[in-house]
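Batch manifest line 511
LIGAND: xanthosine-5'-monophosphate
JOB: complex structure
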Amino acid sequence: MILVLDFGGQYNQLIARRVRENHVYCEVHPQSLSLEKIREMAPKGIILTGGPNSVYTEDAVTCSPEIFNLGIPVLGICYGSQLMAHLLGGKVETAPTSEYGKTEVTLNEAGKSSKLFEGVREKSICWMSHTDYIAKAPEGFTVTAFTPVCPVAAMENAERRLYATQFHPEVMHTEQGKEMLHNFVYSVCECKGDWKMDSFVKTTIAELKAKIGTGKALCALSGGVDSSVAAVLLSKAIGKQLTCVFVDHGLLRKDEGDQVEAVFGPEGPYDLNFIRVNAKDRFYEKLKGVTEPEKKRKIIGEEFIRVFEEEAKKIGAVDYLVQGTIYPDVIESGLGKSAVIKSHHNVGGLPDFVDFKEIVEPLRLLFKDEVRAAGRELGLPEYLVSRQPFPGPGLGIRIIGEVTAEKVKIVQEADAIYREEVAKAGVEGLGQYFAALTNMRSVGVMGDGRTYDYAIALRAVMTSDFMTAESAQLPWEVLQKTTSRIVNEVKGVNRVLYDCTGKPPATIEFE
Ligand code: XMP
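JOB STATUS: finished
ARTIFACT:
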């Protein structure tokens, strides 16, 4: 196991992810973790992360210098490297020139024979982000890399297996960062590399079992990847002590409610209590006459919580509330300063009246693709594991203007056709694609008669982070086939449009 000690930098979980990619188990803990605990954990290596402080300020976060005497290899990154230098008698100062972004780093002769840089080119681009730097390496250390303005871009004491880099090997922009972390875990720490997703699954189930014991847990299951994987982990750990409440708000994609029930309900393979609440009439009633997008979102979000609470009350007090929070949610909720473009439901909205003692978030440390891998490991069906993101308010925000049962049906049918055709054509690389119902009606002709029907908008975007997106250039044949099927098969639609707008200026969803 590799232990990452967190000094408050931005990329800490990314380090853990990079280590896990090397099939080595990794945990991130606060920098205050006691020496005793570290000894007990017996990691094969320790990584000290970056952080926002300066080592020489009074309130700088630090760790015990004894960490370097445990005989365990240590890699200090950015702030971690400065801390290593500072605690071992080197000199850290404000750099005359700060370095931010892509920077060419050169290995010196010692660097070329360093275990950390095996297979790394003499000159390569690394990601820098620092205002302080190591002005003088501690005694016993050798400088291994430099830049024109940073004399100690990397240093090491190979005998004591202490390594430090001023740059961030975990960040994608460090061209050979992957090799460096690979070298650290294999050549320096001598890890075996036998950790895989099945180890995460096994360990997590065992931990949940130990933590929850005979207690009861409650999970709001949406049928999305995250809550589904979290629910299965819990069900494997505690079986029927887990109750999953699935609120079907009538704004799901075609047949989705039944698909969720098939997997998690009594006919499915998992051992848990499953409650499906068919609440669509309630939601449609509340949405009657409402056209303003934010109002619709609020109504759906609040009603969702009310329904969930009502079910929870019937169950009574539980010990744990299960949340499918994943790592990007953790980062995003930490930001909170950006302007509210849309009030995302199911992010941070906790029910007030559910009686529970603690929240469990078994996926808190995973990225989305890791969650999917865990889902496959747990035997969840592929259609559920590879499901594209679907917003909490569901089709409610893919129907412009007032939501009615008739409009939901139209958009469900059109969307199902679209997804079928995209899948049939094997189009790859789409971040999200769906049909939306514009509130526009226009004149058409069918047979010999005039029609005055709705226009469906098709959207497909390519994105890696969903913060920005490009409209995808779908093959024309796919668009034509989808269009012809929609106008022929979906009653009430006589026109299909394709949305070519990127984000910004449009958002991915229509409301
Ligand atoms: P926008 O429309 O803001 O969407 O460009 C970005 C991503 O977020 C999803 N989205 C939501 N997800 N609750 C969610 O869980 C919401 O209220 C919500 N609104 C938008 C959207 O589907 C896209 O993936």
